[in-house]
Amino acid sequence: MTVDGALRALDAQFDGARADLEALVRIPSISASPAHAAQVRESADATAEMLGRAGLDNVRLAAVEGSHPYVLGEWLHAGDGAPTVLLYAHHDVQPPGVVERWSSDPFEPAEREGRLYGRGSADDKAGAVAHAAAVAAWLAAAGELPCNVRVLVEGEEEIGSPTLHEFLTAHLDELHADVLVLADAGNWSVGVPGLTYSLRGLAGADIELRALHGPVHSGMAGGAVPDPVLGLARVLASLVDDAGDVAIDALWDDVRSLSERERAPITGFDDDPGAFAAAMGVLPGVGLVGDPAVPLHARLWNRPAVTVIGIDGHPIAGSSNQIVARAAARVSLRLAPGQEPGRVVEQLRAHVARRVPWGLELHFTPHDGAPAWETDPRGPAFDAAIRALRAGFGADPVLMGVGGSIPFVGPFADAFGGIPALLLGPADPRSRIHGEDESLHLGDWRKLMRAEIHLLAELANVAAPGGPP
C-alpha cells in the first residue's frame, strides 16, 4: 500500500470533501438549542451518509436516553494483528451569536482570501470531513486501510458531552481502540501544525438574583427598592481582581505552582502578545488580562479563568423606566490541571452567596463539568504523529496546550486503559471558533488531511494491539 497513491486520491477528491463540508455548515446543528434538535439529527444523518460514501462499514446513528445522536462507523479488515485507531470529531456547533456581526450568513459558507467562513467550518465539521476524506483516499488508492479504523462523530460536544459516560458504558465494545485521534484541536499558526497535550477543565453555573414579584416604576421605587441588575453586577465584578485573574474565594487552593518548564517563555508567542491580541480581534488600546508576571501561554493553558457567557435583565430595545424583577448570568470557568469541577462549583456558590447585596434572593444552578486533561507527549504514537504532521504540513509541529476543554478525551482514554490520545485539528488562531466570523484556512485543511493519511500508515507500524504505543 502506498501513501503516495492515497495522497493523489485525496487531491482528486478534495473538491468533493469541500462540498461535503459546505453542506454540513448549512445545517444549524446547535446542540444547546432544543429548537434545533431536528437540525442536529439532520446533521447526524448527513454525517452518516458521508461516512458511508467514504467506504466505512456498519455506519449508524447511536444514542442513549436524553442524548443527541452520535454517528459510528468502522473498517476492521486489517486483521487482529493490526492496531485499531479511533477517529473522533463532532458535528454539533455553537449558536451563531450576534448574526449581524458576521460578514456573511453564518450558515451559508463563503470563501474569502483562502478561508471558508461559516459556523462549524473549523469547529468541528471540518474534522469530521477530514476523517472521511482520509479513509476515502486510502480505500480509493489501495482498496484497504493500513490499520483498523473506528469513527465516532459526536452530537453534543458543544454542550459538554453530558451523556458521554453513559454512551461509553453502553458502547464500549464498539469503540475499543489502541489509539485515539481527535480532530477537534488546532494548529500553532497558519502553516505550522500543532499537537495538543493539555486541555483545561470546565465548570459553570447560572446565577440569578431576584428582588420583586414583577417590575416596578423606577421613579416611584428607585432609591428604596434594590435593583437586581446592579446587585448582579457587583457579584460578577467580585469574580476577578484588578488584573483580571480569578478572585473566587479558595479557588486557587488546589492550583499547583507552575513548573520551570511550564513557566519557560515560548519564543514567538510570549514575546509578542500583540500578535495574539490581533489574532483574537482585540480592539486597539484594550489590554490583555491576567498576572503579567505569568507568561501568556501559561495564562491560557495552565491557570483558571472565568467568563460571563450570558446575561439577562431586560433588553435595551423595549426598555422603560422600571426596576426589573430579576437578573441572571451564566458563568463559565476554565480549570487548571488538578482542579475538581464539583469542588470549584461549590467554591463559586459560596463566594457568590457571601457577596449578594441587599438580601436579594439567590438562585444558583450548577452545570455539568469536566476536569482538565494532560498527557506526556512522548512515545511511539506521539512520535508517529509528529512525523505525520511534518510530512503533511512540510513544517515541524509544535507541542502545545490549549485553553479550551474537550470532555471526551480523558474518559475515553481512561476507559481503555490510558491509550494514547493524539489531538490535532483544523483550527488556527484566526479561526475565531465560538465567535462571529468563524473560519477555516482551506490550505491548512488540505494539509491536515494529508497528515492524517500519513498518520494511519505510521500508526499501523507502531501501535500494536496490547502493546505500549
3D architecture notes:
- This protein has 469 residues and is an alpha+beta fold.
- Helices cover 34% and strands 20% of the residues.
- The chain has 14 helices and 18 strands.
- The protein has helices at 3-25, 37-54, 125-142, 164-170, 172-175, 218-221, 228-237, 260-263, 273-280, 296-301, 341-355, 380-393, 409-415, 442-462; strands spanning 57-62, 70-75, 84-90, 110-112, 115-117, 148-154, 179-183, 194-199, 201-210, 216-217, 305-312, 322-323, 326-335, 361-366, 373-374, 398-402, 421-424, 439-441.
- The strands form 5 sheets. A 6-stranded mixed beta sheet has the order 1-2-6-3-7-17, with helices on both faces. A 4-stranded antiparallel beta sheet has the order 11-13-9-14, covered by helices on one side.
- The two termini are 22 Å apart.
- The mean pLDDT is 95.
